[in-house]
Amino acid sequence: MEYRDLEASLPAAQDKFAIRCRDVCRSYGKLKVLTNLNLTVPQGQIYGLLGPSGCGKTTLLKCIVGTLKISRGHITVLGKPPAFPGHEVPGKMVGYMPQELALYNEFTISDTLTFFGQIHGLTSKETRARMDFLIDFLHLPQKHSLVRNLSGGQRRRVSLGAALLQNPELLILDEPTVGVDPVLRAKIWQHLVEIVKTGKVSVIITTHYIEEARQANVVGLMRNGHLLAEGPPDALMKQHSATALSKVTQSVNSVKHHIGELVTDYFVCFWCSVDWKARARHILPKGRNIGALIIKTMVRMKRMPGSLCFQFLLPVIQISLICLCVGGDPKGIKVAVVNNDTASPISSFSLSLLSFLDNSSVIQVPVPHNEAFEGVYNGEYWGVIGFGENFTSYLTKRILQRQVSKEVIDGGSVHVWLDLTNRQIGLMLQKQLHQAFQHKVKQSPLWSFPQFEEPIYGSLNMDFTTYVTPGAVLSISFYLAVGLTALSFVLERKEGLLDRCWVAGVSSMETMLAHLFSQLFVISVQIILMLLFILLVFKMPNEGSLFLVICLIVLQGVTGISFGLVISAGIDDEQSANQAALGIFYPNLILSGIIWPVECIPYPLRYLSLVLPQTYASEALRCIMYRGWGITEMMVWRGFAFTLGWNTFFLILATVILKLRT
Ligand SMILES: Nc1ncnc2c1ncn2[C@@H]1O[C@H](COP(=O)(O)OP(=O)(O)OP(=O)(O)O)[C@@H](O)[C@H]1O
């Protein structure tokens, strides 16, 4: 066969074509994957794309469906560039089967086809009819079988079924017959040959099987990111075997150049002719798609009841652990008491003083002097409380006389030696002794400590737990939302589900909104349970509006979702996403004044602390709950304003990263 024959067998420029790629270039970083690639898929034909592994076939298909942007060149799919406003590519006109399985494992076969049917706007009757046909045609098991229980080959067939579902005008199939037995493979090809016969359906299919490609109407040979040759399989195979491949390439390139001249400026005119209504429809999120995605999330949750319960209960467990274990006074601390006071038990000040010590916190162990210190050195006791022989009489002298000797002062004092390696226990013992002394002194008409009146805000016995809880609640809502969002998006993208939904016509905005709405349901249940526990079980005070409290916690959850989107937009694998979420967890927790007051943070760091998402929000929540303040107070609205500001920033950042990375 001469080159001329090959030239004649290629579609003429004026013929209708389903896909046309001209001078397409695409790189991943510095790696050039597609270089000046030209390819034409004629209307109503099967185009077999052949090439060694790694030559760029999948990348090309992704560029054709629009999930990857090209760096140079033009692509036209069914008359318009992919993702052109008002064009149904991505959308109903195209059926895409990616190389990955891209199926929801918790779905049944029926759920899977119903989901894609909903997105394509099929009625339930149409979906049922197509489902019955595809289950029979693709030899699929029962429609109620779960995808995760299917074999590899069965899953690939479900994936192919999802691509064929809406009878698209263009089928883009990335190695659909891998793992499919020869009989079914022949049947699939027969089906493809039949559907293109109408002239309305076109197919582009990648395969490694040369004998399969023979059934295509046109075959493209790809190597190192460009097309070596393109033509009817027999002509191309003969040519390929008869002459050097380079000559074929030259010939085909000259034909393509000829065609190329006839289609100049074809692409540019599109943008001028788009009316604003089509643009608006293209941009505005569709309720149908959002609804399908929300139902998808609900079905998945229903199929994973253990995981759902865990999601609901995890915040309650976390906040309960904080309320139970953080900030309370240590209990059962053993202290050695060396009481040498010789006064009678009735008049003894030392015994009276010791009786005021809280016995649940401090266990007094009366021991002689040597044993007491020995016990502290051995770690048996946390301290020694010592009273001298003349403690009661010297103390009485100190109370009654204006001037006393140093010996009286010393002998009338309680001596305490503490093991301060654990600061909290040390501080608690100091506090207990001061309180006991205060109680004792209150009985004396001569002595007076400052009298602390009922506090203006808070209560006299407000503990550290009360301080920590509001910030902890915000932090838990924020980080659970970050984790769930980042993980679910990263996994869905890795498994090709995001791309598949996108090609089916679901926009990124719809995906985000659907995630937000379904996550809001989870967040709401989490918040209700957390509030029930902190207010009713742990009796945290709430002087302010419960509505404001809920709003602020929900907004922090939404900020967590937005931050999760940033992580999933920038990171491709779940391990790195987890590391990113965990990596910022502790610095943020410590710098936001949740565990320890911001006022303790040294200055350069304090500026950083003040701009973090939870610093002002925690302060606002404390002000609402403990001071009963409303939204008009600066410290409250500032918390809301910062939360909303971060939310907007994260959403914009996620969108920008996504745009830059496609
Ligand atoms: N996300 C990515 N980031 C960086 N490089 C990538 C990415 N995806 C693909 N590549 C690289 O681009 C090249 C082309 O990959 P592609 O998947 O398009 O090949 P292919 O022809 O479809 O291979 P196969 O037949 O094995 O599926 C390969 O070298 C691959 O390593």
From TrEMBL:
Q: What GO molecular function terms would the record report?
A: ABC-type transporter activity; ATP binding; ATP hydrolysis activity
**Membrane-spanning residues where?**
467-491, 512-538, 544-568, 635-658
Q: What CDD domains does the database record attribute to this sequence? A: ABC_DR_subfamily_A (cd03230)
Localisation: Membrane
Q: Which residues form the ABC transporter domain?
A: 19-249
**Where does the signal peptide begin and end?**
none
Question: Where does this chain mainly localize?
Answer: membrane
* Keyword tags: ATP-binding, Membrane, Nucleotide-binding, Transmembrane, Transmembrane helix
The record's annotation in Pfam families points to: ABC2_membrane_3, ABC_tran
PANTHER family, per database record: ABC TRANSPORTER G FAMILY MEMBER 20 ISOFORM X1, ATP-BINDING CASSETTE, SUB-FAMILY H, MEMBER 1
Q: What is this protein called?
A: ABC transporter G family member 23-like
Taxonomy, top ranks, is: Eukaryota, Metazoa, Chordata, Craniata, Vertebrata
